[in-house]
Design brief:
The chain has helices at about 75-85, 110-125, 135-145, 155-165, 200-220, 245-265, 275-290, 295-305, 330-340, and strands spanning about 1-15, 30-45, 50-55, 60-65, 95-100, 165-170, 175-180, 190, 310-315, 325, 345-350, 355-365. The chain is of the alpha+beta class. The strands form three sheets. The chain has a six-stranded mixed β-sheet. A four-stranded antiparallel β-sheet has the order 9-10-8-11. A two-stranded antiparallel sheet has the order 6-7. It starts with a strand and ends with a strand. Residues about 360-365 have low confidence and may be disordered.
Length: about 375
């Protein structure tokens, strides 16, 4: 029997430049990658939603009748329904869904944001309104679902990257602004270290301190702003900061400058692939030595991949574990093999499109 199946997907992402910058209002350059999570759905004759998650050997079930209470931490399937309903969508039928994905989970590659983006895309298309949402709207709803609904800290980079796709320059001040970048880049190799991320302690040490420093200096020096300050300006404020604070501030401003330089490189009419790799290495040096978010294993994976022919690389995500990646337009297979020899799991990827949807008749047998 043939049934109408709606299929959607969304990509994972890496942060090419601007790690630990978005929560400070500073710009970032993320890229969607060709590892995706997909959701298929078909309507039921009742108001029940059944979601099968075979990759993690799990499932979820709830009714669409009334406002959905949250039954666990980060109850994203239910929160997305509540969010999209607030924006005018209604449901008169339930759904049978299956979720499958290739994005490494809990490694800094935005698997949860990609899932939420795909889920909102599916919900809008399978609602009574059967609407195809603009990708920027999907990004906003996804941020509301994942961050605002649960009062969690978090920026909008992941949601815009996985919704819009490809490589973007994303600004947050004075308002969110997306500039598409279309450099003819080659392959990347993503490496999963297998080490669990240490997000909470790193954010406590890095994010909280930098925000505190910024507030302190802004209160005492009206001209100070993270957005306009340059690394060389730190010496003007060093007497008011301890050694670690001055180092964190300088590293933050250096990363900001690297991101701006990277935008110019990626917008160039003639792409220098080795310069892109070298700029990633420069970024990684600050993330490793000043922000201290890398790990010895991830450092070895990056070094081994670069020795094997990659042009440069960095840790990806909040840090303390998770994934790294290298830019390897040449010798990608060799770089992947080197990562595996250092104990990681390697994926050869390219920049990819954002969330997408395809509906048709699927033969279920």
């Amino acid at each position: 029997m043939k049934k109408e199946i709606t299929a959607v997907s969304a990509p994972g992402r890496v942060c090419l430049f601007g790690e630990h910058q978005d929560y400070l209002g500073l710009p970032v350059i993320p890229s969607a990658i060709s590892l995706r999570v997909g959701i298929t759905g078909e309507h039921r004759n009742d108001m029940t939603v059944k979601i099968d998650l075979p990759d993690i050997r799990s499932s979820e079930q709830f009714s669409l009748e009334g406002i959905l209470p949250y039954e666990k931490e980060r109850d994203y399937f239910r929160s997305a329904v509540n969010v999209i309903r607030r924006h005018g969508f209604t449901f008169s039928k339930g759904l049978d869904c299956v979720v499958r994905g290739k994005i490494p989970i809990n490694t800094g590659t935005s698997s949860s944001s990609a899932l939420i983006v795909a889920w909102i895309n599916l919900l809008a298309r399978m609602s009574d309104q059967a609407k195809e949402l603009d990708r920027s709207i999907i990004a906003k709803y996804a941020h509301e679902t994942e961050v605002l609904e649960f009062g969690e800290p978090g920026g909008m980079m992941d949601h815009y990257s996985t919704a819009l796709g490809n490589i973007i320059f994303l600004e947050f001040v004075p308002e969110t602004k997306v500039t598409p970048l279309v450099p003819p880049l080659g392959t990347f190799v993503l490496g999963d270290s297998g080490e669990p991320k240490d997000t909470k302690s790193i954010l406590s040490r890095v994010k909280d301190q930098v925000i505190m420093i910024s507030k302190k200096l802004s209160a005492e020096h009206k001209e100070f702003s993270l957005i306009t300050a340059a690394p060389e300006d730190v010496q003007r404020y060093e007497k008011e900061l301890n050694t670690e604070q001055a180092s964190l501030l300088r590293g933050t401003l250096q990363n900001h400058q690297i991101t701006l330089n990277a935008r110019s490189i990626l917008q160039s009419n003639s792409i220098d692939h080795r310069t892109i790799g070298a700029t990633m290495n420069e970024h990684q040096n600050i993330l490793r030595n000043i922000l201290r978010i890398s790990t010895p294993k991830i450092d070895r994976m990056i070094d081994a991949a670069c020795t094997a022919g990659a042009f440069g690389g960095k840790i990806n995500g909040s840090g303390g574990g998770g994934c790294m990646f290298v830019y390897a337009p040449e010798h990608a297979e060799e770089a992947a093999e080197a990562i595996v020899k250092e104990g990681g799991k390697a994926y050869i990827v390219t920049s990819d499109s954002g969330t997408r949807s395809e509906t048709g008749d699927v033969d279920n047998g």
